[in-house]
Every structure is written in structure tokens, then in C-alpha cells.
Design goal:
single chain; mainly alpha; 6 helices
């Protein structure tokens, strides 16, 4: 009887993981679509060279195709979240360091929010540490290497770092509390 309960529980977890993977792939795909369309518009306006837009498309398509193929083979696969998240971080890093737009850092808000669905505190902490580190590196790079340090930009950098850090803290605390509430319900 105990073995049967374990099998039923394992089946429910796999079904939930499959649904979560589907949702993560879907939202990643939608965000990727908007990102690609944005870069195509930038190319058409003369703001980005074709090689850069093609590089962005490749960076988007490879992990998404890998995640979709993996999902079709085994929807409840635990490592789909890592495929999509690593692909996102590669894309985010390229976008962050190759854009002159201060607001580029906001791309991370909708994507990383999706990973709350996994209730994986270690994944959220690692993601948040990576995001904060990348944003600090970008600000330091802009100031020291590119010489972008006007009064307006200093304010923008302060807002950027404050919002990224506060978002990271809220994601970590939300995941931690959600996990505690779920354990208490069980």
C-alpha cells in the first residue's frame, strides 16, 4: 500500500513538472518572439547590424529547440528548466552588454519570474545572484570602460541596481515562503 502511494505521488509530481515545463517553455517562447521582433525592427531602422540580429536569433533558437525536443520526448524531464534558463542567461548577457539602452536590464523580470513555478530555492538563488552580478558588471563596464557616467546615467544605474537587487530579494523570499507554506500544507 505504501509503495502504491509513492507511485501515485511520483506520478502527480511528474504531471506537475510536465505542466510547469510546458508553461516555462511557452512563456520563454513568447518573450523570445518579442525579443527577436524587436531586434529585427532595430535592424530595419539601421540600429543593429544583420550579423548581430542573426546571432541573437541563433542564441534564442538553439536552447528553445533543445527544450521543445526534450519536452516532446519526456515532458516531465527535470533538466528542461536548466536548458531554458542557461539559454536565457546567455541571451541576457549578450543583450545587456551589446545594448546602449539603459532599460535593457528589465528583460530579466518576466523570465526569471517563470522559474518561481518550480519552487526550487537553489535555482532561484543562483539565478538571482547571476542577475545581480551581471547587472553590477554592466554598470561597472559602462562607467570604467565606456566612460558613461553622467549625472543622469548615475541615477539610471542606481535605479537599475536597486530594482534588480530588490527583485532578487523578493523572488528569493517568495520562493522560500511558498516552499514553507507548501510543506506545512502537506
Amino acid at each position: 500500500m505504501i509503495e502504491l502511494k509513492k507511485l501515485v505521488l511520483k506520478g502527480m509530481i511528474m504531471d506537475n513538472l510536465k505542466r510547469t515545463n510546458f508553461t516555462a517553455i511557452l512563456i520563454n517562447g513568447l518573450i523570445d518572439l518579442f525579443l527577436i521582433l524587436g531586434y529585427i525592427v532595430e535592424y530595419m531602422k539601421g540600429g543593429k547590424p544583420l550579423w548581430f540580429v542573426m546571432m541573437i536569433i541563433i542564441i534564442v533558437v538553439i536552447p528553445m529547440a533543445w527544450a521543445v525536443i526534450t519536452y516532446k520526448k519526456k515532458g516531465g524531464c527535470d533538466y528542461i528548466k536548466y536548458i531554458t534558463l542557461v539559454g536565457y542567461f546567455i541571451l541576457y548577457t549578450v543583450a545587456l552588454f551589446f545594448s546602449s539602452r539603459t532599460l535593457i536590464y528589465v528583460y530579466m523580470f518576466p523570465i526569471v519570474s517563470v522559474y518561481l513555478l518550480y519552487f526550487n530555492l537553489k535555482l532561484i538563488i543562483a539565478s538571482c545572484v547571476t542577475i545581480v552580478t551581471l547587472n553590477i558588471a554592466r554598470v561597472v563596464y559602462n562607467i570604467t570602460v565606456l566612460g558613461l557616467h553622467s549625472n543622469d546615467l548615475t541615477t539610471d544605474y542606481t535605479i537599475q541596481l536597486a530594482s534588480v537587487i530588490l527583485f532578487a530579494v523578493s523572488l528569493i523570499l517568495t520562493t522560500k515562503l511558498s516552499n514553507e507554506f507548501n510543506r506545512a500544507k502537506l
